[in-house]
Amino acid sequence: MKKHIDPYTALRFKEFNIFLIARFAMVFAWSMQFIVIEWQVYSMTKDPWSLGMIGLMEVIPAVSMALYAGHIVDQKEKRNLLIKCLLGFSLISLGLFLLSEPSLSSEIEATTILYSIYFLVFLGGIVRAFLGPTIFSLIALIVPKRAYPNAATWSSTTWQMAAVLGPALAGFSISWMGVHWSMCLIFVFTVIALIVILQISRKPILNPKIGEPIVQSLKEGLRFVFNSKAVFGALTLDMIAVLFGGAVALLPVFAQDILQVGSEGFGILRAAPAVGAAITMIGSTRFPVLRAAGKKLIWVVFGFGISIIVFGLSTSFWLSVFALFMSGALDGISMVIRQTILQLKTPDEMRGRVASVNSMFVGSSNELGAFESGVTAKLMGTVTAVIFGGTMTLLTAGLTAFMSPSFRKLDLRKDVEEHEAAN
């Protein structure tokens, strides 16, 4: 008899619902803030290079401090650490709100304001380094292990919805309220996230090696990631897909010069992957990805590469929209599978370090993917660059399937059954 699948397993735990509300508020604020900062900085400088500096100021500390952050997360109590991250985020948002005061432009030089914004973005990158590992570790302490797959799906879905709605509201709020009060709204959301997370109780520290030297701790974490075929395979596949499938970075070129659909068409193209990802993530709550997870992830990444190639070759606007929708849908499934693998295969005492490596693999590859797309577009031409990226993604999926039969055969049902038996 087929076992009944409860798509709301994780939602039956009160603290997980509280966590989702806090996560939505923080991701919504963070993604909205990035758009508002871009608008403010470009309005001040009229220089596209200044926009690149924003991303650079955030990614440098986020990546360089990731491993250290993972070590600290494994050594500290997770709920209080998340509170400190949110407090730091709130102070940064408050600082940006004060810097966007219109009267400041007449009292302080624009260069000083610009560098102050860059400095706060840099501090935000430090917070980001700690935030990802802390959230990943806290989820495992809020729900029992049998609910990990469902919790990973709901958490990823919440992140995706917030990441879509935040930038959308940012555009409207700049028009309705201006930059200054948009920054105020962002600050309000960060405070909401902080207040909500206070409703979660303190959690035990499961790491038996408290006080372990940092070098030894980091070596152990890296050794686990690279020796675990399931974890390393999932991270590598996702990183390559993001790195070489960065067609989104070239969307302005396609919208203006190839498809010639203007700003409205650009908006539709930009939204298509996010809509696809959100739909498949919600669907994943009813159709778990435990069975043949390795094979599914390989096929999903392969399909993602196909979607990118179709987009690169397309001269039809709606075919391009469909290709981007499918790339987002497949990427959404990939994210759910990867998070499920990480949650089930990572020992409790190593969650912070594994999540930090994950943030380095995937987080940095977003920025590097945009850079790769720009460089290859310059060298090969825009269409050829996108096709090249999709082809590299296909080759990676094929090589993984051929060279790692153990990953290809990965099935997570046994892991869940073992966790259920333990409970």
Care to describe what's here?
There is one protein chain. The chain is an all-alpha fold and 423 residues long. It folds into 2 domains: 199 residues, MFS general substrate transporter like domains (Growth Hormone, Chain: A); 197 residues, Growth Hormone, Chain: A (Up-down Bundle). 82% of the residues lie in helices and 0% in strands. Helix 3 runs antiparallel to helix 14, helix 7 crosses helix 13 and helix 12 runs antiparallel to helix 15. The longest helix has 50 residues.
CATH class of the largest domain: Mainly Alpha
Poorly predicted runs? none
Shape type:
globular
Q: Could you say which structural class the secondary elements and strand pairing correspond to?
A: mainly alpha
Number of helices: 17
Distance between the termini: 23 Å
What's the name of the CATH homologous superfamily of the largest domain? MFS general substrate transporter like domains
Order of helices and strands: HHHHHHHHHHHHHHHHH
Whole-number average pLDDT?
Answer: 81
- Provide the gyration radius in Å: 21 Å
- Count of beta strands: 0
What is the annotated CATH architecture of the largest domain? Up-down Bundle
| Overall number of structural domains | 2
Range of helix content: over 70%
Briefly note the CATH topology name of the largest domain: Growth Hormone, Chain: A
Characterize the biggest β-sheet.
none
Strand % is under 5%
Topology:
Elements: H1 14-45, H2 48-64, H3 66-75, H4 78-99, H5 104-107, H6 110-142, H7 148-197, H8 214-227, H9 229-244, H10 251-258, H11 262-284, H12 293-313, H13 317-345, H14 351-380, H15 382-403, H16 405-408, H17 413-422
